[in-house]
Design brief:
This protein is mainly alpha-helical. It folds into 2 domains: 45 residues, no CATH class; 199 residues, no CATH class. It contains 15 helices and 4 strands. The chain has a two-stranded antiparallel ribbon with strand order 1-2. A hairpin with a 6-residue loop joins strand 1 and strand 2. The longest helix has 27 residues.
């Protein structure tokens, strides 16, 4: 006979936990022979309809923007959108990812400020939130505590995780990740504080009105191409790292993890597709053994190093790669 005894899945003072508990009473049962409490929470997979509506509208507008781009041949605006988006991509890859999330190199204040501005162009939340989710992803990769757990399928890993409520384990284990180094950086603190302003300025106003005032693009076309088309396509470039790079490709370093070497993703995401290497050696600033190939982010960091703006670039020694890789494959053969 099954009965309810305990509903606690985390901090009982956490309002999110309390809400989950109250809405899941009928789903908590006790096995009479083992005494183990089994927790099945359908509310943790609930849809966030606001996000669904926003992303649906953005994607429909992006389809229309693509038609406008081909039909009207607004190549000046498209080139600007691509170059502006490239800066946003560097803000994610060289900034939020390799600098702040993994501390794979250090940067002077001027470079950190520049990368924070570039990251604002990408419009992927504030730096602290992005880095927290990414550190949780690495620490609990492909478990219920992974924000974009690829074991839940391509769609969930790609965008579904942004359309549904977080699994309770993501919230609980997310509290265990140390973010003190990020909070010590004034740029991260101020970016979090002023992110709404950054979003409006860097995501909407700058790309919208530069084409209008510099080469007399129409307001509607500039909005469609330089703002919406650029924003949505750049989001997918990042999302492919969470989805495709965890599902398709080789696993030469660690065959027991989901992260793969995916060259398409490396091309689209400025070198972030060498994912099996990256999850095996996350502290390496290049995220790859292949040097500059398909890795413009490494080229950028190397250039900043030559200019004296980036320093203490961390790398993995070839003998370390061979030792760890060989040891791993021996254990799994």
């Amino acid at each position: 006979m099954c009965r309810i005894k305990s509903l606690t899945t985390g901090d009982p003072n956490d309002p999110i936990v309390n809400k989950i508990n109250q809405q899941s009473k009928e789903l908590l049962t006790k096995s009479s022979d083992t005494g183990i409490y089994l927790y099945i929470n359908k509310d943790s997979y609930g849809i966030v309809w606001k996000n669904v509506i926003v992303f649906t509208i953005l994607h429909l507008l992006t389809i229309y923007a693509t038609i406008v781009l081909i039909r009207d041949r607004v190549w000046n605006t498209w080139i600007f959108a691509y170059l502006y988006g490239f800066l946003g991509g560097l803000g994610v890859t060289a900034g939020a990812h390799r600098l702040w999330s993994h501390r794979s190199y250090k940067a002077k204040f001027s470079l950190r400020f520049f990368l924070a501005c570039c990251f604002s162009i990408a419009g992927q939340n504030d730096l602290l939130t992005w880095c927290r989710d990414h550190r949780v992803h690495h620490k609990f990769s492909e478990t219920d505590s992974d924000p974009h757990n690829s074991r839940r399928g391509f769609f969930f890993a790609h965008v579904g995780w942004l359309l549904t409520r977080k699994h309770p384990s993501v919230i609980e284990d997310g509290k265990k990740v140390d973010l003190s180094d990020l909070m010590d950086d004034p740029i991260v603190r101020y970016h979090r504080r002023f992110y709404p302003i950054c979003y409006v300025v860097f995501i909407i106003l700058i790309p919208w009105f530069v084409p209008v005032y510099v080469w007399s693009e129409s307001i509607s076309t500039s909005l469609l191409i330089a703002v919406i088309w650029r924003y949505v396509t750049s989001l997918h470039c990042t999302w492919f790292v969470n989805s495709a790079a965890h599902m398709w490709g080789d696993r030469p370093y660690r065959s027991t993890i989901g992260a793969r070497e995916n060259y398409f993703v490396s091309f689209a995401a400025f070198g972030e597709g060498f994912h099996n290497f990256h999850h095996s050696f996350p502290w390496d600033y290049a995220t790859s053994e292949l040097g500059w190939k398909l890795n413009p982010t490494k080229v950028f960091i190397d250039l900043m190093s030559k200019l004296g703006l980036a320093y203490d670039l961390k790398t993995v020694k070839p003998e370390t790669i061979l030792r760890i890789t060989d040891k791993h494959h021996q254990q799994n053969n």
